[in-house]
Sequence to fold (536 residues):
Amino acid sequence: MTFQSAVRKAGLIMAIAALAVSAGCAKKDEGEVQAGGVKLIEKGKLTVCTHLPYAPFQSKDASGKVIGFDVDVMDLVAKELGVEQTIVDTPFEGIKSGQDLNTGKCDAAAAGMTITEERQKVMNFSDPYFDATQAMLVKTGKSYKSLDDLKGKKLGVQAATTGRDYARKFEAEKGLKLVEFEDLAALQQALANGQIEAAINDLPVWTEYIKEHPGGFDVAAEFDTGEQYGFSVKKDGNPELLKKINEVLAKAKQDGTYDKIYEKWIGKLPNA
Amino acid sequence: MKLRRRQRERLSLWLQYLAFIAIIAVVIFAADWGRLREAFFRVDIIESMFPTIITVALRNTILYTLGAFAFGLVFGTVLALMRLSRVAPYRWVATAYIELFRGLPALLVLFLVGYGIPIAFPEREIPGGVFGSIAIGLGLTAAAYMAETIRAGIQAVPKGQMEAARTLGMSHFTAMRTIVIPQAFRVVIPPLTNELILLTKDSSLAYVLGVTAQTIEVTKFGRDTLNDRVNATPLLVAGFAYLVLTLPLSQVVRRLELRYAKAR
Fold:
């Protein structure tokens, strides 16, 4: 075999290989793995996307295990399906844009996520499982009582959250200087450092933070925005799983499991 | 049929072109362009990003990059001179610094500067706010890389230059400053421009410090718009904004390298 014919063959082989590879890239059919009549992306596992940390809904304990309110509720769903829950920590943008669900990274998202119209366009939400309000946290001893007191002051928010959207609405009107942080932990640290004067996030998150840092911080204001949290699945992609989540939620609320989880992570029940 | 050598060569070349075209064709036809366009190329979203992406985001990206570059250049030069110093502790300190900061991720250094300094000195502030923190945070890492580049440049200047300058009665410092370093910088301008390109992209790490509407840079702006519009188009626009900066810079590097090659 001469050199040229070798090159020629190599070229041909490459072309064939390229075609073969591109054919081989085809994703295996969805719905291959089933559990209890629900399709899952991985066998024996309910893969759940979240963004850490977001205590008390999801955070890591000392041993590195992810724990929290959402985790306990999704565990109920996993148990119902007879599978294990695995949790994927991913940026919140990917979750709320629906891409993590669309691309098959996760079966469901459980991230202390508020049900909004925008988000409903890109994913299907379960029934609401938690009523949340927004709250403003300040360092103990500061006299800020409302957004009006923060004119020209730095107010921290977390990227991609409803708290950020809420603060955005008043940014111009109240003359706020919004500073956007990627993670809850960075937001908390910036407040502790005095890099920002106040921070807005969901109330249960602050309650948890105050519990861990007694005497350091106070909730200065609450904003009742009528928000409710929901779990989500891929838009029009997994109605069986959504149905199962709703069933489990309804059952847990009925038999007291939900109340137990609520008391464990949040505290006393509202109107109870 | 017996082909001549030339013909065989040409045939094999054509087959390779064909293979190449086949690969591209497969990619083009297999991709779902309708969905891609819907996800990455929504004209209304692109329009909504202008002019803020230029007047605020790109401007800040440039400022952060230049700030970090200036800090890195000055500090890097000092480190390079320390590395070459006759004083042994200077050499140790500089070597330790370079090894440490070349090994640490820029993100980590930036975070330590942004959150560590306020904890360590609660009464003080880094001048320039976010800009200052980024200039220092990214500059610390850049300095480590630049120091090695500049050191190589200084060593590339023939020894005779220094010797001649000393013979003329210049002090070591004056000779370094007026004779050796200017020549060294001619050598290192192309690699330093590469560092500038790298810094342009590293400036996207500014998000860890917490950004306001005034201090936002291109990547964060893209991600923010993605959040608001629930569509990935802004990321593509942000990517192009970087190319607007980095492509001309790459051209500059190529030109400088050519000119330097000629001058030798």
